[in-house]
Structure of 2-phospho-L-lactate transferase:
Amino acid sequence: MRITALAGGVGGARFLRGLLHHLDSRPPAAGDGPHEVIVIGNTADDVTLHGLRICPDLDTVMYTLGGGIHPEQGWGRAGETFGVAAELEAYGAEPQWFTLGDRDIATHLVRTRMLGLGYPLSAVTEALCARWQPGVRLLPMSDDPIETHVVIDDPDADPAPDGSPAVKAVHFQEWWVRLHAAAPARQILAVGIDQAKPAPGVLDAIAGADVVVLPPSNPVVSIGTILAVPGIRDAIRATRAPVVGVSPIIGGAPVRGMADACLTAIGVETSAAAVADLYADFLGGWLVAPGDHGSVMPDDVALRAVPLLMTDLEATAAIAGAALDLAQELAGESAGR
Ligand code: GDP
Ligand code: CA
């Protein structure tokens, strides 16, 4: 079975760890080849700080599946130390709202050096994964630089002549990490996305999949940006594979993080159904939490209610199993038609 998943950071990575655990416990049937999982990772969170190119979502997937993640935090390295960050602070080097751990910095050094030598991000990611052996093929959504920026009010600048408040654009990381998404987003822009191309292997992974899975990643700044790379959404609409997703929203709120602030910015309600609606042009099946079972889904989306809290590996594997079961049902139906 070839499974292609789209993933952001913590939500995506945790789900994928459960998916691999589920697949491990269900070896392929005799005659079938081994399971293959390809992950298309979000790169719109990427940022350059202190001269280092940082890909938070790719690294979260790589560390989580490779056994190097900080377990409680869900991002960053286990056993991390912050010697470099303390030295940077002593120099007053900005920005200080984004703390880089020493172990993590090694990853960014290798990446930045390879990019500087001209390697595309996909090759760099493959090289980093050679160490971590994540058990999936991890592809960046694009080799072209894409950065999510957020337009917020700028209280320090004079209002425009018509009296409307001055605005400024900040990098997504500044909005998320420094401002905790508390400054209302007037607009969320993926800068560079219109000119970007899918990374090598991405479109083939979608076209050649038996199942396409959307983990419970942020629908705007993780899944939304992946889908906005020209060609990716069309490939997902065209694939013969069933597309199933897991709601990141339970009972009208994100499970962790501030996805509600992102949904509000694009004028979408924070609900499992409204997120499904964002994917209505290709979604076949949608897993929601039991309390959201009454949600009104877009036409032709098969709804299943199962516990959706990724509290531990077993619970997460059960969610992944439910997603694959639903995909199999949908594949059976379309074969029978
Ligand atoms: P990020 O890039 O680190 O923000 O991570 P993602 O975009 O991959 O995932 C963030 C989303 O994961 C948030 O919107 C959360 O609501 C969702 N999430 C986190 N934990 C859980 C969980 O246990 N269950 C479900 N269903 N969603 C979760
Ligand atoms: Ca992210």
Notes: The radius of gyration is 20 Å. The chain has two domains: 2-143+196-336, 147-193. Residues 147-193 form one domain. The chain has a mean pLDDT of 96.
